[in-house]
């Protein structure tokens, strides 16, 4: 008897080595931690948490998120990062014999979740490995009739955005769920949320890991129609949101202006960094709607940058992205250091 399913044994689990580096711009994290006064407030909240009781604060966090997006509470589900919620959506909607449609290249965890569900995957290649081609998506949806359409917008690792007008066409054409992963949506103006709660097949995934500088808290949430959330909730384990994370999530939402100001700074730095990268000889930089920039360079650049104390994400093994690395937008000082090192390397 095989102890585990063959497709699970055959796949590689998600892991990412983290070599030591003075400047770390590889995981699309926020460049700044929470300020000291916010952490001091968090420490005071921590003292109030009853460790011996099962968590109850998730309801308050759900209420706050619903209020932020002007939606009924029945449209919101919270989880340990948006990945957990995506897995719950897929477990609730997919099984062997059903179909998942997704872009390629994109976030590698999507395929891992599909393998766990044992579902068939249809991949829609991005143009030149980078940009969405909406007309190809709509044609493929009508042809394949997928049970779940998964779109990452802005897409990781390319930064490409799925056009809002075309997304409406996708919703109209899709026979099943349309899941839009908006992990980086705070860095752009486009969002699918505007079609909720009326769009009963739409699921929007959000996270506090990126724009809200809370990657270590593992806090994500989804927005969907009231008819969809009860079914997705059935695929989630009970007491999934621990008391500490829920309280700190509420704290972050109370200080929304602080993070919104930081988002504007990151977007400004992204545009400056993009312009500088695009001007470098031997570097092709792609426009981004996220907090990172994709560049295409010669082989070995990621290793050469690491030798200079800068850790970037080498994604040259992904389909269509030969020679590509992804650079997270850091602080102005970090971005200057990345530019200086790249000038030295490519010359």
Provide a descriptive summary of the structure in words.
Helices cover about 40% and strands about 15% of the residues. The chain has helices spanning about 5-10, 35-50, 60-70, 80-95, 110-115, 135-145, 165-175, 230-235, 245-255, 255-280, 300-305, 330-345; strands spanning about 25, 75-80, 100-105, 120-125, 150, 175-180, 200-205, 220-225, 285, 290-295, 310, 315, 325-330. Helix 3 packs parallel to helix 9 and helix 6 runs parallel beside helix 7 (about 165-175). It has two domains: about 5-35 and about 255-345, Aspartate Aminotransferase, domain 1, CATH 3.90.1150; about 50-255, Aspartate Aminotransferase, domain 2, CATH 3.40.640.10. The strands form three sheets. It has a seven-stranded mixed beta sheet with strand order 2-8-7-6-5-3-4, with helices on both faces. It is built from twelve helices and 13 strands. With about 350 residues, it is of the alpha/beta class.
CATH topology of the largest domain: Aspartate Aminotransferase, domain 2
Domains (count): 2
CATH class of the largest domain: Alpha Beta
**pLDDT below 50 for ≥5 consecutive residues: which ranges?**
none
Average pLDDT for all residues: 95
The CATH homologous superfamily of the largest domain is called Type I PLP-dependent aspartate aminotransferase-like (Major domain)
Using the 3D structure, state the CATH architecture of the largest domain. Answer: 3-Layer(aba) Sandwich
Q: Summarize the main sheet.
A: 7 strands, mixed
User: Approximately how much beta-strand content do the residues carry?
Assistant: 15-25%
- For the biggest β-sheet, the strand order reads 2-8-7-6-5-3-4
How does the overall form come out from the CA principal axes?
Answer: globular
Helical content (DSSP H or I, runs of 4+)? 25-40%
Rg (C-alpha, Å): 20 Å
- What is the count of DSSP helices, taking H or I runs of 4+ residues? 12
């Amino acid at each position: 008897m095989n102890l585990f399913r063959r497709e699970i044994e055959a796949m590689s689990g998600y892991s990412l080595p983290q070599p030591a580096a003075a400047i770390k711009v590889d995981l699309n994290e926020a460049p700044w931690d929470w300020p000291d006064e916010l952490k001091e407030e968090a420490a005071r909240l921590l003292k109030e948490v009853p460790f011996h009781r099962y968590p109850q604060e998730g309801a308050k966090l759900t209420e706050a998120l619903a209020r932020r997006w002007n939606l009924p509470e029945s449209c919101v589900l919270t989880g340990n990062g948006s990945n957990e919620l995506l897995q719950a959506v897929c477990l609730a909607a997919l099984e062997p014999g059903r179909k998942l449609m997704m872009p390629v290249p994109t976030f590698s965890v999507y395929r891992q979740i599909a393998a766990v569900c044992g579902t068939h995957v249809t991949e829609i290649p991005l143009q030149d490995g980078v940009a969405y081609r909406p007309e190809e998506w709509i044609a493929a949806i009508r042809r394949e009739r997928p049970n779940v359409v998964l779109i990452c917008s802005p897409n990781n690792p390319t930064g490409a955005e799925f056009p809002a007008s075309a997304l409406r066409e996708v919703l109209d054409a899709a026979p099943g769920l349309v899941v839009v992963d908006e992990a980086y949506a705070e860095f752009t103006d486009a969002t699918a949320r505007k079609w909720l709660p009326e769009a009963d097949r739409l699921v929007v995934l959000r996270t506090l890991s990126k724009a809200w500088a809370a990657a270590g808290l593992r806090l994500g949430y989804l927005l969907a129609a009231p008819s969809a959330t009860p079914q997705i909730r059935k695929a989630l384990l009970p007491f999934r949101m621990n008391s500490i994370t829920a309280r700190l999530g509420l704290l972050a939402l109370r200080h929304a202006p602080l993070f919104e100001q930081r988002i504007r700074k990151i977007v400004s730095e992204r545009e400056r960094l993009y312009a500088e990268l695009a001007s470098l000889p031997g570097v092709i930089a792609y426009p981004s709607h996220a907090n990172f920039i994709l560049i295409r360079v010669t082989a070995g650049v990621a290793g050469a940058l690491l030798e200079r104390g800068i850790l970037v994400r080498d994604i040259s093994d992904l389909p269509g992205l030969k020679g590509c690395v992804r650079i997270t937008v850091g602080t102005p000082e970090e971005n200057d250091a990345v530019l200086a090192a790249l000038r030295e390397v490519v010359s």
